[in-house]
Amino acid sequence: MKRIAMNCTILTRFAVTEAEALSSLLPFSRNQQRLVPKSAVSRRRQAAVAVTGALLLGLTGAVSLVQPAAAAAPPLKGAGTCKNIDIVYRPKSAFPDTKQGRGAFLIQAIKVEPAVMCLVNAERAAANLRPLQRFLRLKGTPALSSASARHAAEAVKLRWWGDVEPGKNCRPMKNDPTKCDPHINPQTGSTPLSRAQALGYGRRCASFSIAENAYVGWGSASVTPRAAVTWWMNSKLHRDTILNPTFEEMYTKVAWGSADPDAGSTIPALTYVQMFGRCS
Asked: With b meaning 16 or more CB within 10 Å and e meaning fewer, what string describes 8-33?
């Protein structure tokens, strides 16, 4: 049986003072926004909050474990035009232990990211939204790219996603304590925002926001870019993040293996981490 396990993002939006911008993050935040201290935007926002005396918070969340049947999912807008959307990631053992073979194994991951980007931008184009881009050089830091890659690798190494179980080290979801939060590393306590900031994201921004989607699949039909984006587009919170008009950039990284121990030894298995950003 092919199964896909996935825990949803939880969205939180903030209007913050300068002091609050320096404070630690709420542990359930997945779509997170912060002002850069001492910037002009921060000073204006600080004055606005001081006048109103209000901190605005909104929280919604959901969790789902098994992907809807493929027949029930509407076709992706870019299914007929995007390349490599059905690529089935193969293990390192499937390639010769040579320089060329090791390179061919790594090239698989390089093909996944543009395939996801193409599918996501096709959905955004259908909603009359501007396309997302990769701003590795324009913004001066590869922070979101590196943060998503590292989180995917750590998730596969620690395998904490899925159900909360006795002896399992994970942070339960706020809205469903039976499920582990895939966005909080149980060893380091890092969140999407803390990981991005640790790598330099936001240093050149007056204000910025980020969001993170995650996905894990096992079995040939469940590890492809088409499967991941189909799942996200059929989950309201993930779809809302993908179609959020404020985001400018997106990075999708994958790691061989499952972050959810329910996959057992099934191969192929692939873990996706997708990060969105806006810097202004």
From this structure: bbbbbebebbbeebeeebbebbbbbb
